């Protein structure tokens, strides 16, 4: 792992890199939903940037840690504690693609939820994912969460392998509802790990 990695809290002016990394983490999930929310003359990325600049909400720069290399953002960790108890609300009112994700989140109340973990392609295979997961554990302990949680597509072998290697275990699954162009089928998988 290069010694050059530097971790820091994200800033509002990192919003474009955050939006791009969120979309990488979701393998186009972000772009799919942002495109539906785009106004006249606005791109999907514009919507993602605006969302990243928010002061509140799950996808806010305030919940993000970035890794830099040579002053350039290389990767992202986006996470926060899930409510305990977790109120999933009316699942039937949610879009089909979102429903299984919210149902899985509800199975890990009080955990420190890793909403997104991503690196830009040129920084992959250099230990950055493991470093960001280690940072997630530290943040979870500081937040006094007893466990960490993450959701991954069962067919996303590379990501699943990383989480298994860092001692996450599969605890629940729900059928995945894909959007056009999404590279996976099968299930969404909830994985957890003790924080201490």
Low-pLDDT regions:
none
Tell me the strand percentage band. Answer: 25-35%
- The total number of structural domains is 1
Q: Roughly how many Å is the radius of gyration? A: 16 Å
Strand neighbour order, sheet with most strands: 1-2-3-4-5-7-6
Q: Pairing-aware structural class of the strands and helices? A: alpha+beta
Count every beta strand, where a strand is a DSSP E run of 2 or more residues: 7
What's the story with the biggest beta sheet?
7 strands, mixed
CATH topology: Aminopeptidase
N to C succession of SSEs: EHHHEEHEHEHEE
Q: Distance N terminus to C terminus? A: 24 Å
Tally the helices. 6
* CATH homologous superfamily annotation: Gcn5-related N-acetyltransferase (GNAT)
| pLDDT averaged over residues | 95
User: Considering DSSP H and I runs of 4 or more, what fraction of the residues is helical?
Assistant: 25-40%
CATH-derived architecture: 3-Layer(aba) Sandwich
Shape: globular
Provide the CATH top-level class.
Answer: Alpha Beta
């Amino acid at each position: 792992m290069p010694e050059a990695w530097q971790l820091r809290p994200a800033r509002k002016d990192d919003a474009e890199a955050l939006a791009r990394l969120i979309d990488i983490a979701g393998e186009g999930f972000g772009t799919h939903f942002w495109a539906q929310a785009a106004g006249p003359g606005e791109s999907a990325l514009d919507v993602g940037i605006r969302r990243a600049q928010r002061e509140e909400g799950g996808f806010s720069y305030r919940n993000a840690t970035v890794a830099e290399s040579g002053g350039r953002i290389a990767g992202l960790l986006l996470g926060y504690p899930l409510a305990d108890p977790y109120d999933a609300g009316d699942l039937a009112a949610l879009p089909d693609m979102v429903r299984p994700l919210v149902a899985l989140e509800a199975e890990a109340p009080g955990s420190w939820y890793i909403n997104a973990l991503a690196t830009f392609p040129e920084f992959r295979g250099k230990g950055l994912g493991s470093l960001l997961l280690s940072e997630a554990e530290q943040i979870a302990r500081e937040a006094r969460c007893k466990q960490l949680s993450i959701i991954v597509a069962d067919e996303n072998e590379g990501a699943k392998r990383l989480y298994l290697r860092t001692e996450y275990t599969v605890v629940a699954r729900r059928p995945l509802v894909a959007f056009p162009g999404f590279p996976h089928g099968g299930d969404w998988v909830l994985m957890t790990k003790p924080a201490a």
